[in-house]
Design a protein that fits this description.
CATH class: Mainly Beta
Radius of gyration: 23 Å
Distance between the termini: 44 Å
Structural class: alpha+beta
Number of helices: 12
Bound molecules: MU-OXO-diiron, calcium ion
Number of strands: 28
Strand content: 25-35%
CATH superfamily: TolB, C-terminal domain
């Protein structure tokens, strides 16, 4: 096992290291039933039609779309294994911004030998770009971007092991994460950052936050520095993104547990200890080494500090002086992204995944309705959080996490949402990553990226569980044991109402590899073929034309079970026919994550996180997490 002190791995690489996939095991009868009922084997193989993967019910009401010919305005590209980005013929890409690029005129210059100095590290574009959204504000193009985590070794080259050695090193890492708000502009030489744009802003691990909603002011939220339990510092492990109809940005705190460690005794209070167990907070952090130098992250000293992370945070990009708000009503878990949509009555619906093996898919519905032009400051303060239950008969329901149903108070449900979900029997999922809502049909999709432990057995012969003890039994929506490829689930709410209790679901795609597996299950669904192999779907956005853009964060070894998949990539999927084609490939070692469009939709912005290759500047340069701008050479629309 690799020493934790080495340069931090991505969350997925760390996971794979500590919980390697077992060899492929035999499917049990449950899988057979789930797959064959859906027509995966019969329909797919007999007719070779991508549509066979979808239940018939999903095709009803979309016949107009179905009559269209191919939706794809590009010729798909082959899998790649090199160190750069590839796009289809007739398209071009350029780097818009890299880790360390200046946002302000007084920012330090990027020095590959020394990294970014502590002084001024909050004046540059942070590391490991992830979810992002573009806002048009007063004629300005404002891009808001997450910075998920840091690769310490390249950020702190002066340290022996890439581990912070003093408070200054810690501050550097804290400054290089969080969120960037920056103005961008398209000129003769393409897209650039407007240095010193009036709305430019960095939000870091030290930016003042306001805590709102049911958990605000609760005893579990109070610390010595904040006896009110309503004001915290920083937003953490900002993974996927979201946006509200009223023009604010939602940043999603994912693996927040990894920032906390203990210099002495762990808390013994039963409620606190049980929460730590469920959320993976222990004496050892995941390698940031904050806690020896910043007592805020030392749980021996500040046992409640972790309760103040793991939320959806709302940011107003139009006001650089505004205080970001932690919306505890939307629950505390390893938030992936936040997909918002309005119910027919105007209530705000937010779909959210909890990215950990066997954790749940959530939905939140606001109490109040959105009125354009009205006061939106408390819209995300009160509502109902629910978890998804997927039945094997392709029906499902959202189960509300109420005090009656869970035996917990509203504040406890907000702080320990996972525990509340377990109490009502939520379906354990194969790591829910991004949710995307189709703007052209009443349906939503979620990437279930993989789950190496699904259906596998512990040493005592019992089925492995999530951290709450809920078994990860193979079921229809998570139908593969030791699932190393992932799938995308789709649901349609009852009564065409995203706030309805019931839904019907199906699988849009099961990734797989027909070359490595003659067996139908791991070969993937019918819409997987030689030309579009991928694993571990993660980022996902549906564009204004209804095309599904799927980004991957998987095994890019291009060997064995992953042979033919190449580097991580972005594909486009047709929601009606199920056809999927590869559009972009990232440099070796990178994850492709984060996607949005310019206001004129002639440019798409794509995030390249943690490249291992010297990207984007080539041989002899450091690998730098970057956002690339992709355009058609003829400047026509790209989304
Ligand atoms: Fe940050 Fe689950 O991806
Ligand atoms: Ca990542
Ligand atoms: Ca992700
Ligand atoms: Ca992932």
């Amino acid at each position: 096992m690799t020493d934790i002190k080495r340069s931090r791995l991505s969350a997925d690489a760390w996971d794979e290291l500590h919980f390697p996939r077992p060899g492929v095991q035999e499917f049990d009868r449950v899988v057979e039933r789930a797959i064959s009922r859906r027509g995966f084997l019969g329909g797919a193989l007999a007719f070779g039609s991508g549509a066979a993967v979808m239940g018939t019910s999903f095709l009803q009401g979309t016949s107009a779309l179905a009559q269209q010919t191919s939706r794809f305005a590009f010729a798909p590209i082959a899998a790649q294994t090199d160190g750069t980005v590839h796009v289809p013929e007739g398209y071009k890409w350029q780097a818009l911004v890299r880790w360390g690029d200046p946002l302000f005129g007084d920012a330090p210059a990027f020095d590959p030998a020394k990294g970014v100095p502590a002084e001024g590290s909050d004046r540059v574009f942070g590391e490991n770009t992830d979810g992002m959204e573009l806002f048009s504000i007063g004629g300005r193009e404002i891009l808001v971007v997450n910075h998920e985590y840091t690769n310490d070794a390249i950020n702190l080259p002066h340290t022996a092991e890439g581990l912070p050695e003093n408070a200054e090193d810690v501050l550097t890492l804290q400054n290089l994460q969080g969120v960037t708000v920056m103005e961008i502009v398209e000129g003769a030489d393409g897209w650039t950052v407007v240095v010193d744009g009036p709305l430019n802003r960095r939000i870091t691990h030290n930016t003042k936050m306001r805590i709102d909603g049911p958990a605000a002011g609760h005893d579990l939220m109070k610390t010595e520095a904040d006896p009110t339990g309503t004001a915290s510092l920083g937003t953490f492990n900002n993974c996927g993104s979201g946006r509200t109809p009223w023009g604010t940005y939602l940043t999603c705190e994912e693996n927040f547990n990894g920032y906390f460690g203990a210099s002495g005794e762990m808390p013994t209070d039963q409620t606190v200890a049980a929460g730590y167990q469920r959320y993976g907070i222990g004496a050892k952090d995941s390698g940031y080494n904050y806690f020896p130098f910043d007592p805020r992250f030392d749980v021996s000293v500040n046992p409640n500090e972790p309760h103040r992370a793991g939320y959806i945070v709302e940011i107003d990009p139009s006001d650089p002086a505004s205080t970001p708000v932690k919306r505890t009503a939307l629950g505390r878990f390893k938030h992936e992204n936040a997909a918002t949509v309005l119910a027919p009555d105007g209530r705000v619906v937010v779909y959210m995944g909890d990215d950990e093996r066997g954790e749940f898919l959530y939905r939140w519905v606001s109490r109040d309705i959105y009125v354009p032009g009205g006061d939106t400051s408390t819209l995300l303060s009160e509502g109902t959080l629910s978890v998804a239950k997927f039945n094997d008969d392709l029906s499902g329901e959202w189960v509300a996490l109420t005090p009656e149903a869970t035996g917990m108070s509203a504040a406890e449900i907000a702080i320990f949402s996972r525990t509340a979900g377990s109490a009502v029997g939520a379906t354990t999922m194969d790591r829910p990553e991004w949710v995307a809502v189709n703007p052209l049909a009443i349906e939503a999709y979620c990437c279930l990226t993989n789950n190496s432990r699904r259906g596998t057995k512990a040493d005592d012969g019992s089925i492995r569980t999530n951290a709450g003890g809920d078994p990860m039994t193979v079921d229809a929506v998570n139908p593969r044991e030791a699932n190393n490829y992932g799938q995308i689930v789709r649901w349609r709410p009852a009564d065409n109402d995203h706030a309805a209790e019931a839904f019907a679901w199906d699988l849009y795609v099961m990734a797989g590899n027909p070359n490595a597996h003659a067996d139908g299950h791991f070969a993937g669904s019918a819409n997987i073929n030689e030309g579009n192999l991928f694993n571990s779907p993660d980022g996902m956005v549906i564009d204004s034309t209804g095309l599904i853009w799927i980004q991957t964060d998987g095994d890019d070894s291009n060997e064995g079970e992953f042979l033919g998949m190449g580097n991580n990539q972005m594909l486009a999927g047709d929601p009606v026919t199920g056809e999927i084609q590869r559009f972009l490939t990232g440099p070796f070692g990178s994850e492709v994550t984060g996607l949005c469009w310019s206001s004129d939709r002639r440019t798409m912005f794509v995030g390249i996180q943690h490249p291992a290759a010297p990207f984007p500047d080539g041989e002899g340069t450091l690998p730098r997490s970057s956002i690339v701008a992709v355009k058609r050479a003829d400047n026509l629309l790209v989304g």
